């Protein structure tokens, strides 16, 4: 049997062997029909690790039989790019698969771009990052197709595992293997949509199992121990990581406790406690805000406890914080008001600070006309404390409203005070 890993051996040779990704390369798609007709456009493929970006590029090359060169942008130099250009001059057309294309530097681009533009080099770039954020516009503009590959379904992965077990040429078909449908399905579930991870886990399981009378029998205990070691899906600090943070916040904002805990679990399994804690603290003020002002300090306390405890115990206070925020009343009125004020300033809506608000703690302030400020604490108003009706905004902005209270939770009481004060102002 070949010493090459099973995941490498099972790489599809043509686009008809691609697992899943029917929205990109299904038989009814324009891309499938173009490739079958011998036309390959330059393209960007993006998606999470293990979804098949590299496999699709190799399958396209295998289908068209065009010359094919694979480079990694983190390692390729100007000389590598020049060699591809030279090959293109000789053969007339070359498919260049460039992994981690978001790492491509300007010098490499300058060497390659004219040849991509004239069609002698067909560029297939792959990245785990969002190409609209992380790929240079010069590259994007020359790629006719930008396709997002999705994680494979459990059914897609299970089908791929079954094929690997039966394939006598590239897979494990020459071995007598006793593995149940349930065990195969467990591997497919554990891979979480990552074909490479699934095939690697299958191969590790087979070679960790005992052979008896020429049959390799997969034991549940072996499989379970290997499944427990499988890392969670997604790269720390990659696009998927930030998508998880976004999904966590949106689930909390939407008061979906189960979804929020799911995304929290995913993030904590990635191990970045600092980034998760920072996002939770922001959420406590951004999404809960004045509706429940006590949540901010409670979340901060949970974060400090988590940092002191470290993982895995840190998950306990953070779980409390997430559930608390999910089920709390919510308001974004305070920071929305501040953003409105910032937007107003950027729009040039500024004015002179009223003279009675200017600093008077120096000799000569009176000569400049500064002064006349009325001290609110000297004017009691019921149980509210001190308040006096005087102008605070610049004259040209008087009457501008940035804050719009939301009558939710504690802010309902604050809204009543705000509205009462607004009424007092009108009685001036």
TrEMBL record:
Domain AAA+ ATPase: 39-151
Pfam families membership: AAA, AAA_assoc_2, MgsA_C
A GO MF label: enzyme activator activity
NAD found in the keyword field: no
GO terms under biological process: DNA synthesis involved in DNA repair; DNA-templated DNA replication
Membrane-crossing residue ranges in chain numbering: none
CDD domains xrefs: AAA, HLD_clamp_RarA
Keyword Mitochondrion: no
Entry keywords, A to Z: ATP-binding, Nucleotide-binding
Family: Belongs to the AAA ATPase family. RarA/MGS1/WRNIP1 subfamily.
Protein's UniProt name: Replication-associated recombination protein A
């Amino acid at each position: 049997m070949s010493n090459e890993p099973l995941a490498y051996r099972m790489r599809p040779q043509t686009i008809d062997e691609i697992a899943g990704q029917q929205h990109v390369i299904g038989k009814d798609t324009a891309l499938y029909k173009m490739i079958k007709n011998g036309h390959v456009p330059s393209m960007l493929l993006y998606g999470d690790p293990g979804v098949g970006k590299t496999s699709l590029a190799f399958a396209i090359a295998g289908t068209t039989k065009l010359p094919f060169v694979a480079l990694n942008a983190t390692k390729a130099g100007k000389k590598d790019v020049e060699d591809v250009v030279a090959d293109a001059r000789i053969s007339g057309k070359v498919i260049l698969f460039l992994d981690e294309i978001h790492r491509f530097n300007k010098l490499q681009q300058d060497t390659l771009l004219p040849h991509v533009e004239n069609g002698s080099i067909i560029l297939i770039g792959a990245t785990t990052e969002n190409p609209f954020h992380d790929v240079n516009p010069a590259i994007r503009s020359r790629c006719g197709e930008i396709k997002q590959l999705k994680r494979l379904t459990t059914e897609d992965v299970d089908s791929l595992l079954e094929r690997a077990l039966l394939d006598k040429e590239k897979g494990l078909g020459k071995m007598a293997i006793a593995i149940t449908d349930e065990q195969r399905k467990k591997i497919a579930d554990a891979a979480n949509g990552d074909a490479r991870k699934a095939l690697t886990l299958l191969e590790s399981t087979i070679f960790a199992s005992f052979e008896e009378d020429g049959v390799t029998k997969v034991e549940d205990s072996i499989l379970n121990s290997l499944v427990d070691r499988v890392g969670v899906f997604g790269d720390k600090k990659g696009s998927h990581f930030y998508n998880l943070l976004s999904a966590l916040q949106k689930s909390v904002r939407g008061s979906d406790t189960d979804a929020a805990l799911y995304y929290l679990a995913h993030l904590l399994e990635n191990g970045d406690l600092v980034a998760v804690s920072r996002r939770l603290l922001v959420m406590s003020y951004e999404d809960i805000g004045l509706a429940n002002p006590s949540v901010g300090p409670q979340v901060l306390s949970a974060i400090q406890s988590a940092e002191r405890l470290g993982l895995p115990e840190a998950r306990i206070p953070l779980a409390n914080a997430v559930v608390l925020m999910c089920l709390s009343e919510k308001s974004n009125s305070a920071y929305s008001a501040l953003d409105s004020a910032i937007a107003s300033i950027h729009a040039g809506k500024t004015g002179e600070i009223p003279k009675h608000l200017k600093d008077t703690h120096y000799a000569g302030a009176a000569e400049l006309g500064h002064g006349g400020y009325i001290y609110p604490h000297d004017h009691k108003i019921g149980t509210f404390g001190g308040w006096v009706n005087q102008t605070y905004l610049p004259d040209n902005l008087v009457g501008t409203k940035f804050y719009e209270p939301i009558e939710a939770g504690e802010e309902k009481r604050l809204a009543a005070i705000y509205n009462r004060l607004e009424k007092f102002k009108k009685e001036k």
